[in-house]
Amino acid sequence: MSEAAIRLESGGGATAAPQAFVSSATAGDFFALLKPRVMTLVVFTGLAGLVAAPGVMNPIAAFTAVLCIAVGAGASGALNMWYDADIDAIMARTAKRPIPAGKVAPHEALSFGLILSVFSVATMGVLVNWLAAGLLAFTIAFYVCVYTMWLKRWTPQNIVIGGLAGAMPPAIGWAAATGSLAVAPLVMVALIFLWTPPHFWALALYRSDDYARAGVPMLPVTAGAAETRRQIVLYTIVTVACSALPVALGFAGAVYAVIAALGGSAFLAGAIAVYRRPGDHRSAMKLFGISILYLFALFAAFIAEAAIGLAPLVGAA
Description:
Layout: H1 3-7, H2 27-33, H3 36-52, H4 59-83, H5 85-88, H6 106-127, H7 130-154, H8 158-167, H9 169-178, H10 183-206, H11 208-214, H12 219-222, H13 225-242, H14 245-248, H15 254-276, H16 281-308
């Protein structure tokens, strides 16, 4: 058994006495626990909800809110890596993460994630408002307890239902700015929620052997590649249709409309290419990349229009 395997203790796997591990973790190892690439998208969509909200927010409060969203997202990532360390060690895509690589002890990751969770929620509540703090706490708990600890290992609908956690940041940002919710941030949440399955299933198609080896019931493993490709097209169609709602409901303008049309066309074309090319992993990974750019572009349009006052924003209705 390797030294890394001996060190491995997690919520999903075996446990070992924390004192048996001599930590050699660096700041970079702890930063990797935060899943910085995922955090970037979370922060960006949270910022969009905050900027698009009506009224003017105090810059210090706005910075605090965005920081809390970032820290909360990082806390979720650390707790996810703590619990999933056993399956991360099996999968090629995740085997070099800090815990399975033996760089960070699982109990260190657990403590780190819990401290960041409490810090982000408490700071949001005290310095911004408690509605935003409550939504942030819900997001962390949903990602860790509902998705990571339950859905991920038990149902192929894991990413469909679990996607709600990643969809919440616009609502948190809006609530931070206004102390309330409205139709606009809920539509933003719905857009990310619908976008998540085709985005993630494109990666899952490429990594299906990894998930099968780890015993994770992702859709390509349980239903096969053909059904996954069909579901990708269906969810992409619904996502592109949902992207028209901000214009129809009057809280997005011409810039957003153009980006939604062009980006939606590219997203749908990529999904159709995956459907028509069975076994072509390149088309799946291309769709994965397109989907990220698509979502970034949509939320960049929200930010740009709100910043220069082009979009007819809804109020707190």
